[in-house]
Amino acid sequence: EVQLVESGGGMVQPGGSLRLSCTTSGFSFSMYDMAWVRQAPGKGPEWVSTINSKGDGTAYADSVKGRFTISRDNAKNTLYLRMNSLKPEDTALYYCARWAGGSSWTRVDEYDYRGQGTRVTVSS
User: How far is Cα 65 from Cα 82, in angstroms, rounded to an integer?
Assistant: First the structure.
């Protein structure tokens, strides 16, 4: 059974930092490109970032570029997202997702498995 379990969310002040983790099991993690997707209250899912299977290729949404860093540890079957300079508009449920293949990393409908998510709230 494919499982993705996120952790590391919480409440932080604007300008603060958080590091999210996604622990996976039930599939060959090192063979898949992986992503972080977020969903703000009342909005649809928004692609945040993707990393390729080897960890040497990444992409970011313009809204987080320069502030967020995606990484992975294939030996630990774990995906990470380091978030710096957080803004109130970063408030959302963040979840990791496995790319099923397709035309673009940015298409949230091209990810076949996702976790339950971890909530991030940025507020003073």
Answer: 12
Say which residues have a Cβ less than 8 Å from residue 29's Cβ, sequence separation at least 6: 72, 74, 77, 78
End-to-end CA distance of the chain: 40
**Dihedral over alpha carbons 60, 64, 69, 72 (to 10 degrees):** -50
| C-alpha of 119 from chain center | 12
Q: Are the C-beta atoms of residues 12 and 23 closer than 8 Å to each other?
A: no
CB contact at 8 A, 20 and 92: no
For 52-96, what is each residue's pLDDT tens digit? Answer: 999 999 999 999 999 999 999 999 999 999 999 999 999 999 999
How buried is 8 (Cβ within 10 angstroms: 0-12 exposed, 13-18 middle, 19+ buried)?
middle
